[in-house]
Amino acid sequence: DVDAGKKEKVLQNPRGVILITPESLESFFVNRPGRLAGLFADLRFVVIDEIHALVGRERGLQLRSQLHRLRRYTRNEFRLLGLSATVGDRIDYYRRWMRPDDLERVAHIEDQQETKRVQYGIHAYDTGSADEPSEARSD
Fold it and tell me: Do the beta carbons of residue 49 and residue 83 sit within 8 Å?
């Protein structure tokens, strides 16, 4: 959700990182096809976060189609990176999704140490209920 002025600025001088959903990318294909070459000509990387949420689903098919079409507008072949903490033992399934024509070019990078500690904090705020004033609550 970016205002029109900021979008126009990116279209005039594309650089840096663009964070975009498959739906917004599709909007570019439909509504601004003449701007695609200028916007994505120097694209070098596409990072798909939480790839497990897309692969094997309709949204994933949409994205695969978009990535295929996007290659027509880039000067060089861009690298595709898929991120997920929940791939598990289905790595070959994801490799085929990433590059069905050349599985050998897909590298799987995995943290073998798995020594990370999960750190979190929970903050709860009791605002009371409509039936009982918050200062009179006893729970």
Answer: yes
Q: 134 pairs with which residues across the strands?
A: none
Give pairs for 46-53: CB < 8 Å, separation 24+.
46/70, 46/78, 46/79, 46/80, 46/81, 47/81, 47/83, 48/80, 48/81, 48/82, 48/83, 49/83, 50/83, 50/84, 51/82, 51/83, 51/84, 51/87, 51/94, 51/97, 52/84, 52/86, 52/87, 52/94
> So what's the pLDDT on residue 139?
46
- Average model confidence (pLDDT) across the chain: 80
pLDDT for 1? 59
